[in-house]
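Structure first, sequence second, as always.
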């Protein structure tokens, strides 16, 4: 792997032969786990400007029509999270000379508040080719991390690391993106953190490394007095794409009564065996991927697939020694006369992937020059802990990527498209709706992670009778299952809200995932608790989840800071007013600086007397308030009505919809419906 320094450049073809598609990841974190930034990409012509506003990709315009650029969103890592961007370099228009990769903070925040700011680039097989760490970011609100640019027939990468003081809107305007006026101009300006101008000028690009502190890759930003018209105060970048999403409310049904069942494209009532479920699920998913380009591209771009014509197949027979193999499916994408091929192995219900089977498909793919093997099951892959261990023959020149998708992630991506981001036409939206109905049906076998594993009951019993010892392997298995469950909760809630929901790492950046899980397993043996935190975009704090296996209680909570102005009694009264529709059994605890606890009580008791939330001691400083709900957790390991997994899902959903949505946030929030997609 190549370690880049500011101003250095490298040819991608010198690092790998598989660079037709690449994944660029931008990462950062903070000591508290808080702090985030928005990724943006600009396609520039030879003059250093976008050809039109559609060459600017950000949170409101995430996918290029030709598939050359796709913002894949965040993915959890041991260090926090990474924003990933897929580039199909074979699909980039010949008029685009360079691709600028940047990120910006909002509400006046600066990158100096974050740590570990870096960029990495991987080839189509997922192998990391280069990394670029950026250090001098103290006062800037936007950073150009790097750029991909053409030199003849090849693509090169330059490490830029250029800071801006103008935020997202200033950066976009500097490269020729139009900014439109709207009613949210003032709010958007705050979000973008606009100052007066960018902090440096830039000479024309060259292939030579640029000295530290100068920028040779990005054209000089426009400055007042350069002959350009004054910048308008509005800062909301616009997109012209019109997308189709499902209506917020279901249409009135024409059925006479509830016994009438709507006809479905993908029926599930005839499924009798696991083999039937696997075959049907594979065929349903692959057919929708081929017919809805936005969806097929969304699922395969992160695996290195190019943007092109996709065809999908099931039950394909391939030679393998004396006994031919039949993978569950094959995905092929054609682009510029070249083929990208992935073999698909599917499991439903609680069936686990078989290492021998996946190994055979990896060997077949390597011999036939295929690019990837994709496994699909209800299990959730963890960083640093692959679901299936396979051996890679280092003597083979051709590399095959092994990727995993969970059914929960498939449902999440479909819901994001038809509920929030939109697809190309109504037919595509209807197909995705039918797919979601199929996946959510109890008979499909595609319900996501739904079993805490065989260690769950012994560990609970060991905690109850205090016989569980540190170092017990079963405790580690429960910790891994808990991590999978939390990631799935994030996917489900994020799909319902249309917002980023990510687990907060329990320690600082740079920890080995396996060592961290060992420590959490020891902590489970000592305390008998499983704990996690979720960061939900637009909420004023972190949503905490604690499962006490000794008492059988689930606690969901959030800590909110006190306002910067006002008096304690006014804070207490305002909080009670905002929680007018919250459950009466909501616990409210006042947090006192320098003390472990303060006044507390239920909302029902505090409503008539908000002053009871205030400390009695003179001079005590209120740091904030902790809001908590408690419920009994399921005892069984599975996802039945009485199961632990269902109880965690229900607890998070109830807490968000009845408590968190009533609190002041940073962005508008949508209230999810518990049933997921509304059909009809």
């Amino acid at each position: 792997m190549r370690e880049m320094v500011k101003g250095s450049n490298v040819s991608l073809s010198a690092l790998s032969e598989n660079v037709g598609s690449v994944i660029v990841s931008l990462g950062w974190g903070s000591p508290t786990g808080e702090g985030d930034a928005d990724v943006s990409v600009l396609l520039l012509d030879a003059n250093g400007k976008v050809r039109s506003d559609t060459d600017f990709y950000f949170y409101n315009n995430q996918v290029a029509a030709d598939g050359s650029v796709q913002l894949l969103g965040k993915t959890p890592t041991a260090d926090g999270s990474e924003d990933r961007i897929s580039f199909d370099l074979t699909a980039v228009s010949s008029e685009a000379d360079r691709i600028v990769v940047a990120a910006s903070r909002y509400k006046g925040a600066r990158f100096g508040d974050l740590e570990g700011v870096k960029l990495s680039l991987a080839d189509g097989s997922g192998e990391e080719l280069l990394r670029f760490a950026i250090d001098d970011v103290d006062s800037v609100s936007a950073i150009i991390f790097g750029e991909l640019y053409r030199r003849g027939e090849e693509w090169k990468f330059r490490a830029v690391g250029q800071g801006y003081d103008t935020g997202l809107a200033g950066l976009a305007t500097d490269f020729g993106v139009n900014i439109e006026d709207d009613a949210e101009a003032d709010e958007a300006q705050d979000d973008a953190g606009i100052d007066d101008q960018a902090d440096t000028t830039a000479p024309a690009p060259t292939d030579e490394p640029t000295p530290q502190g100068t920028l040779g890759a990005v054209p000089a930003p426009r400055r007042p007095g350069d002959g350009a018209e004054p910048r308008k105060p509005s800062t909301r970048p616009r997109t012209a794409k019109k997308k189709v999403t499902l209506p917020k409310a279901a249409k009135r049904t024409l059925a006479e009564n509830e016994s009438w069942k709507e006809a479905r494209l993908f029926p599930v009532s005839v499924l009798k065996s696991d083999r039937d479920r696997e075959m049907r699920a594979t065929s349903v998913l692959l057919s929708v991927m081929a017919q809805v380009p936005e969806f097929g591209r969304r699922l395969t771009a992160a695996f290195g697939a190019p943007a092109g014509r996709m065809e999908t197949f099931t039950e394909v027979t391939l030679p393998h020694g004396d006994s031919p193999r039949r993978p569950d499916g094959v995905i092929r994408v054609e682009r510029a006369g070249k083929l990208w091929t992935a073999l698909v192995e599917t499991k439903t219900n609680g069936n686990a992937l078989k290492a021998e089977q996946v190994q055979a498909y990896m060997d077949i793919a390597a011999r036939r020059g295929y690019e990837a093997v994709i496994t699909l099951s209800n299990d959730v892959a963890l960083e640093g802990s692959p679901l299936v261990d396979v051996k890679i023959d280092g003597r083979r020149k051709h590399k095959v990527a092994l990727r995993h998708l969970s059914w929960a992630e498939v449902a999440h991506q479909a819901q994001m498209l038809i509920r929030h981001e939109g697809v190309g036409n109504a037919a595509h939206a209807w197909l995705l709706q039918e797919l979601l109905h199929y996946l959510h049906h109890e008979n499909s076998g595609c319900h996501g992670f739904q079993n805490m594993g065989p260690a769950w009951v012994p560990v609970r019993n060991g905690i109850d009778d205090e016989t569980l010892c540190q170092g017990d392997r079963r405790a580690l298995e429960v910790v891994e299952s808990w991590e999978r469950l939390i990631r799935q909760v994030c996917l489900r809630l994020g799909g319902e809200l249309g917002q980023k929901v990510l687990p907060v790492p329990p320690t600082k950046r740079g920890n080995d995932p396996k060592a961290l899980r060992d420590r959490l397993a020891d902590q489970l043996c000592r305390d008998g608790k499983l704990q996690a935190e979720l960061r939900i975009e637009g909420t004023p704090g972190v949503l905490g989840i604690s499962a006490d296996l000794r008492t059988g209680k689930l606690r969901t909570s959030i800590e909110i800071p006190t306002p910067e102005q006002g008096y304690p009694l006014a804070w207490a009264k305002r909080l009670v007013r905002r929680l007018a529709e919250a459950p009466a059994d909501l616990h409210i605890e006042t947090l006192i600086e320098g003390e472990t606890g303060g006044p507390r009580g239920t909302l029902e008791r505090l409503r008539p007397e908000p002053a009871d939330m205030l400390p009695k001691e003179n001079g005590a400083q209120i740091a904030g308030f902790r809001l908590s709900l408690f419920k009994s957790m399921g005892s069984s390991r599975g996802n039945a009505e009485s199961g632990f997994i269902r109880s965690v899902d229900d607890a998070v959903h109830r807490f968000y919809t009845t408590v968190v949505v009533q609190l002041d946030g940073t962005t508008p929030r949508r209230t999810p419906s518990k049933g997921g997609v509304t059909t009809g």
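Margin note: The two ends are 51 Å apart (CA to CA).
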